[in-house]
Specification:
The chain is mainly alpha-helical and 372 residues long. It is built from 15 helices and three strands. The longest helix is centred in the C-terminal third of the chain and has 33 residues, at 268-300.
Length: 372
């Protein structure tokens, strides 16, 4: 289950990029919570990071190939845990997404994303030679169906959509021909577009939860008076007030004076934009893009298909969540509740991302066996 590793094979570039993002997040959390004098979120995030380092280190030593042999068991455990959340989970802000352990609340759907990246990577690697048929694609889609439904019923539509997005990314890296890829993508886009239009035009139809409908309607409607668009409006104000160079650390009035809810969490980019300006956000985006590009480069040089699909799925998750989070903060997308990876406050999110990072490092550190 565990293997020996050589430190000379450690992927330093990815680790440095990850630590830079986490450091930026801790700085932003410190600033967003400084006016209230409550240092609890800052202290917790530092503790989350230290625990995350331990989890990541453990994953580095895990032999992902050996664990991959039990992917069906892992898949079953994930679905059981998600079902437990749905039946007995703690309710917070109208959603049942957490397991309350007393001293902390864990959000299993965050870890489910990493587990599904791993399990789907194994499944595709097993079917890759015969993947070019709608029957094979259908089996892989069915594999995603149960966790998608369980997560969506929490309700957590954004995370369930991310899981499907990761599937598309991993399929794109497989031997799947473009005609099958485009056919599947076009069908998905048509269904999504028709669904959004139907939800907006038929507000009395109970297809999704009320809070999800109100967020979609708010995103596609003008007006600062709507409750669901308040966060986005304040976020845009914060970004605009930062200008090119920002107001300086601990000097963002909108984020500091609590005019922007979740300024240290989902909307942490608005806090950074107000204090570090447009150029500061460009630096942040550059770091994220470098992280994704480095991951794709490493994946492209791998001989092991299972490992390649793991890395592609993981960096695809980082890219997708970053894109969605930035879209929400700037008002281009409905408010989804997705955090910015490594930057936003939250233990479950940070731990899941660092576990995924450890898994990627485990793949890369077998490079004598895997790389050209």
């Amino acid at each position: 289950m565990f293997k020996k590793i050589e430190l000379k094979n450690l992927e330093i570039i990815l680790i440095l990029l990850m630590c830079t993002l986490i450091a930026i997040g801790i700085l932003a959390i410190s600033s967003a919570t400084s006016f209230s004098g409550d240092t609890t979120p800052l202290i917790k995030q530092v503790i989350f990071f230290l625990i995350g380092l331990i989890l990541m280190t453990i994953m580095i030593f895990v032999d992902y190939r050996k664990v991959g042999e039990y992917y069906s068991i892992i898949y079953t455990i994930v679905n059981i845990v998600l079902l437990v959340v749905l039946l007995f989970g703690a309710i917070n802000k109208g959603a049942k997404r957490w397991i309350d352990l007393g001293f902390i609340e864990i959000q299993p759907s965050e870890f489910a994303k990493i587990a599904m990246i791993f399990c789907t990577a194994k499944l595709i690697s097993l079917k890759n030679e015969k993947i070019n048929s709608f029957a094979s694609i259908g089996k892989i889609l069915l594999f995603q169906f149960i966790p998608f439904i369980l997560i969506n019923r929490q309700p957590n539509l954004s995370t369930s959509i991310v899981i499907l997005t990761l599937l598309v990314v991993q399929l794109f890296a497989s031997n799947l021909k473009l005609k099958y890829m485009f056919s599947t993508a076009i069908i998905g886009i048509i269904i999504l577009t028709m669904g959004i239009g139907y939800i907006i035009k038929n507000p009395n139809q109970q297809i999704i939860d009320d809070y999800q409908r109100s967020r979609i309607v708010a995103a596609f409607t003008d007006g600062d008076t709507q409750a669901e668009s308040y966060q986005t409006s304040r976020s845009i104000d914060a970004i605009g007030s930062g200008g090119l160079y920002g107001k300086g650390i601990y000097k963002g009035a909108i984020s500091q004076l609590n005019y922007l809810p979740e300024s240290h969490n989902d909307f942490i980019v608005a806090t950074l934009a107000e204090e570090f300006g447009f150029y500061g956000i460009i630096v942040l985006l550059t770091i994220i893009l470098l992280f994704v590009a480095r991951g794709l480069y490493l994946a492209s040089n791998l001989l092991d298909e299972f490992g390649k699909f793991i890395i592609v799925g993981y960096v695809g998750m980082i890219a997708a969540q970053s894109f969605i989070n930035l879209g929400v903060v700037t008002g281009l997308l409905p408010n989804t509740g997705l955090t910015l990876p490594f930057v936003s406050y939250g233990g479950s999110s940070l731990w899941a991302n660092m576990i995924g990072m450890g898994l990627v490092l485990s793949v890369v550190m077998n490079k004598e066996e895997n790389l050209f």
